[in-house]
UniProtKB/TrEMBL annotation:
Coiled-coil zones: none
Source organism: Myotis brandtii
InterPro entries linked to this entry: Ninjurin
Pfam families in the cross-refs: Ninjurin
Any one GO cellular component localisation term in the record: membrane
Protein name: Ninjurin-1
Residue intervals passing through the bilayer: 26-51, 71-91
Keywords: Cell adhesion, Membrane, Transmembrane, Transmembrane helix
Domain of life: Eukaryota
Lipid bilayer topology: Multi-pass membrane protein
Family statement: Belongs to the ninjurin family.
Compartmental location: Membrane
GO biological processes: cell adhesion; tissue regeneration
Length: 102
């Protein structure tokens, strides 16, 4: 469930950054980092699906499964680091000015 929450949070952050537009100081880095995070999360999800489909009882496949498991762990670590940078750059929702203009 945490993976889905992070995926939804990144999608929401991407929407907020795109709503702010290119005038936002960190527009390009944030769009790039959020996109990288989303792609990596989807990749890890697909990788985990492949991991589950392999036969764990077959010793011949243990080396490949260990490699795929280590790869998934490494990608999750990279996702965490990327999301730390996303948080550091700060995604703010655009503020709508409702005050009447004179």
């Amino acid at each position: 469930m945490l993976d889905i929450a992070l995926l939804m949070a990144n999608a929401s952050q991407l929407k907020a950054v795109i709503d702010q537009g290119p005038g936002f100081g960190f527009y390009v880095p944030l769009v790039a980092l959020i996109t990288i995070s989303l792609v990596l999360q989807i990749s890890v999800g697909v990788l985990l699906i492949f991991l589950v489909r392999y036969d764990l009882n077959n010793p011949a496949k243990h080396a490949k499964l260990d490699f795929l498991n280590n790869l998934a762990t490494g990608l999750v670590f990279i996702i965490v680091v990327v999301n730390i940078f996303i948080t550091a750059f700060g995604v703010q929702k655009p503020v709508v000015d409702l005050a009447p203009r004179q």
